[in-house]
Amino acid sequence: MHEELRAALAGLLDGLPPKQAAQAVDRLIANYRGRTPTDAPVLRDRADVAAYAAYRMPATFEAVRAALTAFAARIPEWSPATHVDIGGGTGAATWATAATWEGHHSTVLDWAQPALDLGRELAEGILPDDTRWQRRTIGEGLTVPPGTDLVTVSYVLGELRPEDRHAVVAAAATAQAVVLIEPGTPDGYLRIREARTQLIDAGLRIVAPCPHSDSCPIVPGEDWCHFAARVSRSSLHRQVKGGSLPYEDEKFSYVAATAFDATPAPARIVRKPQLRKGQVLLDLCTAHEALQRTTVTKRHGAHYREARDASWGDDWS
């Protein structure tokens, strides 16, 4: 799915000078995040949307796919039949959902018609033909169709006023499963933390990344919970983003919750494992001892080998 998305984006930008795309991206970055009222999206036309899709879709796709993969690992017998992507824009989270599960019907809701139009164009012939792209105000008054199995909300909450943010999470909480993703910054984590509390108050169970539905043990202002997804860059993507490396690491925060019984991991690795001679240091969030560091040595045999192969964000038992 990643290669199909890359090819679709390359076709979209074919003939658009990278310098022109980079200039559009610079302008959008300066004005987009956090200051967009729900009745006036910054993505005004096709040129804006094309430049922003080239800049953001690969990273958003990988972050959402990582969150959905961690979630799916905890509910191996479940898959959604219906999916709603709130604020989905050009559909990165819908692509990620299609890369995680098959056989579902997706609906993308967004306030920007140019983003929806381009998302439909990108998805043609790749995502299911019955994927729907609907213009909707993302905020107060938003509803999700009754019986929806999965709702995703990715990189949207930070664009909303507090009252609209609360309304979006409330609407999402009516689904059987909810996955919310925000940038892996202190502010992004705080928005996820706030939404996590709202989901719990609505009666949902936290499945990932947290190993419990109790209060988050992190002290705001001292640390924040986030993870990283590796994003490979095409040559065009490097030109648009002004980078030279063939990859980047997208930092993200997320929470996944369900209305049905699901068992979270006993613990989750919340920092990059530190490899030492004969030992591995793991920073864990656990169900019973909150945040802790554990040392796995060669004496632990198979567990040591597992620790050496473990990655930031993985379950740990």
UniProtKB/TrEMBL annotation:
PANTHER family: 37S RIBOSOMAL PROTEIN S22 (PTHR13184), METHYLTRANSFERASE-LIKE PROTEIN 17, MITOCHONDRIAL (PTHR13184:SF5). The keyword Plastid does not apply. InterPro entries: Mt_RNA_Methyltransferase, Ribosomal_Rsm22-like, SAM-dependent_MTases_sf. Keywords: Iron, Iron-sulfur, Metal-binding, Methyltransferase, Transferase, Transit peptide. GO terms for cellular component: small ribosomal subunit. It comes from Streptomyces inhibens. GO terms for molecular function: iron-sulfur cluster binding; metal ion binding; methyltransferase activity; structural constituent of ribosome. This is rRNA methyltransferase. One of its GO terms (biological process) is methylation. It comes from the Bacteria.
